[in-house]
Write the structure tokens for this entry.
Amino acid sequence: MTEVKQDLGSAISRGGKGYINIAAQCHDHVMYLAEVPAKKFYTDFDLNFEIGGLVGKYYDLDSPAGGYDSYNLEVEALGGKLIYGENSMPTIDFRQPLIKNYEDLEKLKNKKIDFQNAGRFPMILNSISSMVSGMCIFCSPFSLAVGLMGFPKLIRAMKKDPKLYDGVMSFAVDDVLAPWIRIQNEKSGNLMGIGADAWASVPNLSPKEMMDWIVPYNQRLENKCKAFGVMTMNVSGDYCEERLDKFDEKILHDSFDVEVASFGGNPALFLMMGRWHEYSLEAVRNYTEKYRKEGKDVSITAGINARLLRDGPVEKIVDNVKRFIDAFARDHDLSLFLSNVPADTPSEHIHAAVAATHTYGKFPIADNLDDIELKIPTKKSFKEWRIENEPIVKAKMKEEAKEERCGLAGLLWQQMGSINENEKFKKEYADAKMSFLYNLTDQHYSALIKIENGTLDVRHIENDSDIIKNIEVDGSIACTASLFFDFTGGKISKAAMLIKMLTGKLKVKGMKNMKELAKIMAL
């Protein structure tokens, strides 16, 4: 059995509990279970996240199940009109687009955007949690441009008026998204950002169109945010061909090229909205083979199709989970994702998907998954479960909130927290007492790692010069967030790292001890 190594780049996708992560995009389903009116659910984010936390615990998901309409917030903050349904998340009123021509674009460019107070922005900034811990969530440049103009008019501009298209896309990147992500970073210390981009998918556009007309703006946003220490990744290029007779491996691979180019060049693939319970998974492995031969970790987020989740049957949902794990979990960084769960999806379908993931996805992955017995728990309805468990679960959630780790500490904890369950670590470091500091010089928070009596902990500390200089540690690294992610992601050669050290841009103290930390991280 081959196991992929766990590094900082896989902190999101790998489970920290000894099995593959499973998360869910299920805003409407959460609202449906809790019987909360849509207008309240999507405008009271503290309530949204609280209920999402409860539903996440109910289903035993590996992250909260709350969430918001991430395609609409920026447009709404700019003055766009939303249509609120009674039982569904709001949508943009495309009958009244904000941009119809150059004049409208200039008006928006000259408008002062108050990122602290516009629309629902303050609800995000002041909420007690976030949809994805440690992440800035935003609408990617292309989907934001669709929200500003409407899809047909944006495509017409792309093909007939590239100057207008560039103006709208540049406005989305330079004037809206980069400043908004920066505000979120300053408020929360988040170092990563995920951009939703469902409009940029096959067959809406061809991979060539996306590579030529969308990827450059994704990369422009990436570079702008990297300058202030945030890594942005845009989920562009999803393959969603509905007709199985038109499945094309070449087009699939070209769409994966778009995904990789939009994800900082990292081999990270999203199998999200398409019919992945029926597409060829061997075609995916054919694409990742080149990376695996180079010894590179490939991250795959595999989506359980929304219609399959709603319609079932359970046996087919379980088979889909098992199929993903068998195809990818032994030599890829695999995580599972319940894609846009319909409101009225039977709870037993979600329980089955989670149980299958936690059973078949237990590390190390078994050679033959057919030999593993799956037991799907029978649970009460959410309403009954909530009556019995809400006080206890809320108290636990409050305690977990107190343990919140901001910025890099949160990312490192996702990666390293599970080491406390590692028997080899507990035995070898039973008498150890060590501490390490990752000092991100351009951020609000740094990360302090402590190892004592066979236990590891990670905490964030304020990046105050007096606080930092008075901390005694066995090893430390000091640099900007951008440089930190570059060398942990293997994007800087040893020679280049040496130059950074000689010029003072990268400061390392206690090199021998830092190597010991690297040894621990590799366990």
Notes: The first helix runs from residue 27 to 34. Residues 1-15 have pLDDT under 50 and may be disordered. The two ends are 16 Å apart (CA to CA).
